[in-house]
Structure to design on (351 residues):
């Protein structure tokens, strides 16, 4: 009874627990499995009516075989429920009565057919492997047969049955899994009445069986398709280099001659004009406010003319260059009249 309570408690825990893991079984599935079956010694009471008597008896069993088939439904999140039909067959290895071998015993057989409702939970271990825990309850139809020197006696019995299940699953395809299962199976309070062939009947402990099987499971609902591979968009083409639009050449106070620094800037402007194909170049001279307006106007024009000459020397067509002077009318840094400001003594080259 303790084992029964533990199994029922496990079933309740499985039914009430919550699952966070995913499962590949979503929808209907079928499975088929087969393997070995072991039956624990069956202790029972042997009643006889002619003459009246009561004997304590025990039957031991050879290793037998089992085959089981299931139809189930996966609910997602690891949970499954299934109907299971099973058949087990074990030969009787020995039979004792009151602790000694029963006289006249030759052989016997225990055959059982079961129909169970199981609740199971799959725990993912790796991408393809999972571990299963489950419990089930249902009915067990057993047939007990004894052969001796006298007539063969047999009877069948319907009993309530329950089981605990543990298994290991391995996905060999999107819809097919190979699995190993172990079942602790128990049918309760079997009774066999051999009358009128024999004046006796048997009542005893539960039939306890251990079943180890290997099987295949096929899920009709296809496993979730992997997310489609999205190709990364090609990198954008490199940005076209942007042509510099303006260069500034600075001059000394009251000077229109070109310094080495000024010639370097002019060369950069000429190279850019050649590379980017500038159709026209505007050269505009400026002066600071340290002289008169008329003088500064002429000085700014001389500075522009000097820059044009240097551009021509760098290979720029003179016809593409226009020169003008703004004197002190457009300072880069506003100042009072008469103030010398180096940043205002300049020429702008615009492509």
């Amino acid at each position: 009874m303790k084992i029964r309570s533990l199994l029922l408690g496990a079933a309740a825990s499985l039914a009430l627990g919550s699952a966070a893991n995913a499962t590949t079984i979503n929808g209907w599935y079928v499975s088929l499995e087969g393997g070995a079956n072991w039956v624990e010694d069956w202790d029972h009471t042997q009643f006889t009516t002619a003459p009246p008597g009561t004997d304590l008896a025990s039957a031991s069993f050879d290793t037998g075989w089992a085959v089981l088939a299931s139809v189930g439904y996966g609910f997602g999140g690891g949970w499954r429920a299934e109907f299971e039909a099973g058949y087990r067959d074990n030969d009787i290895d020995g039979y004792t009565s009151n602790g000694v071998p029963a006289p006249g015993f030759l052989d016997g057989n225990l055959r059982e057919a079961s129909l169970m409702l199981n609740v199971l939970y799959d725990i993912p271990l790796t991408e393809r492997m999972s571990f299963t825990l489950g419990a089930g309850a249902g009915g067990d139809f057993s047939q007990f047969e004894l052969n001796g020197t006298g007539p063969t006696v047999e009877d069948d019995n319907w009993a309530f049955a329950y089981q605990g299940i543990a298994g290991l699953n391995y996905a060999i395809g999107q819809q097919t899994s190979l699995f190993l299962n172990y079942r602790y199976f128990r049918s309760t309070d079997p009774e066999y009445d051999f009358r009128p062939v024999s004046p006796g009947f048997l009542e005893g402990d539960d039939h306890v069986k251990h079943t180890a099987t290997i099987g295949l499971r096929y899920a009709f609902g296809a496993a979730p398709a992997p997310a489609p591979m999205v190709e990364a968009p090609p990198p954008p083409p490199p940005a076209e280099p942007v042509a510099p639009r303006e260069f500034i050449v600075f001059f000394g106070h009251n000077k229109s001659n070109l310094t080495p620094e000024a010639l370097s800037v002019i060369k950069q402007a000429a190279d850019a004009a050649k590379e980017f194909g500038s159709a026209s170049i505007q050269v505009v001279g400026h002066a600071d406010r340290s002289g008169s307006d008329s003088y500064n106007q002429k000085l700014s024009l001389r500075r522009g003319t000097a820059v044009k000459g240097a551009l021509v020397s760098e290979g720029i067509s003179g016809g593409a260059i226009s020169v003008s002077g703004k004197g002190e009318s457009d300072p880069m840094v506003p100042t009072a009249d008469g103030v010398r400001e180096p940043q205002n003594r300049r020429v702008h080259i615009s492509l």
